[in-house]
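Structure first, sequence second, as always.
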């Protein structure tokens, strides 16, 4: 069983790639089937069309190009999901697209327009206080603020670049403690030791983090032990 399949036992929402930065049609369908079998909500995970860089390299595209390839990927995931009897819950940009759109108004607008063009009832996952939040709300979309359990934060609330040491947190105890603190107190320590206030509706764990399935399980156990109800954003 793959890490992705094992993850389904602990998560409530899955961000599924459409093949532009990772995955392929068979993996897309298989992942949706796994999600359906475990009652996990399905979301589209569009990224830059950059499989060699796994969508984690900054690419400079026009807003129209971005809107088009985002719409294409959302439609692909939604279409396969529909074939499996599953309705798409949300959209979350991947990697460099996520981080660039968080601070680039034009790119954020392209992301929000693509989502709105396809289905205005979809939930848009976004970094709190980002340009994506503003763009989504301006178009009347429901925006769910997202926090990261396994990623380090800069003092301004953005994510530490993966090119820097310490960007990804691997200690399961530390990650779990951060997740519980985010869910119960609404704060997290930035890389410089300062404390950030983050009011998030959803917590992210990356499937390519080593031991992600065990990590997600530990986080869920920690959250539930702290009295947190763990459910998909669309259930609220």
């Amino acid at each position: 069983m793959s890490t992705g399949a094992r993850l389904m036992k602990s998560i409530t929402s899955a961000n599924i790639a459409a093949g532009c930065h990772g995955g392929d049609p068979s993996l897309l369908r298989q992942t949706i089937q796994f999600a359906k079998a475990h009652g996990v909500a399905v979301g589209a995970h569009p990224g830059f069309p950059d499989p060699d860089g796994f969508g984690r390299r900054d690419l400079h595209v026009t807003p129209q190009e971005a809107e088009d390839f985002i719409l294409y990927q959302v439609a692909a995931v939604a279409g396969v999901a529909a074939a499996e009897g599953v309705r798409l819950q949300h959209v979350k940009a991947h990697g460099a697209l996520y981080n660039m759109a968080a601070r680039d108004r034009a790119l954020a607008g392209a992301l929000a327009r693509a989502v709105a063009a396809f289905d205005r009832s979809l939930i848009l996952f976004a970094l709190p206080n980002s340009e994506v939040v503003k763009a989504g709300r301006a178009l009347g979309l429901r925006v769910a603020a997202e926090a990261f359990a396994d990623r380090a934060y800069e003092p301004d609330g953005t994510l530490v670049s993966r090119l820097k040491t310490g960007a990804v947190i691997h200690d399961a105890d530390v990650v779990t403690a951060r997740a519980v603190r985010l869910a119960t107190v609404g704060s997290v320590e930035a890389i410089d030791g300062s404390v950030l206030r983050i009011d998030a509706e959803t917590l992210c764990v990356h499937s390519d983090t080593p031991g992600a399935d065990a990590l997600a399980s530990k986080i869920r156990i920690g959250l539930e032990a702290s009295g947190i109800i763990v459910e998909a954003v669309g259930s609220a």
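Margin note: The two ends are 31 Å apart (CA to CA).
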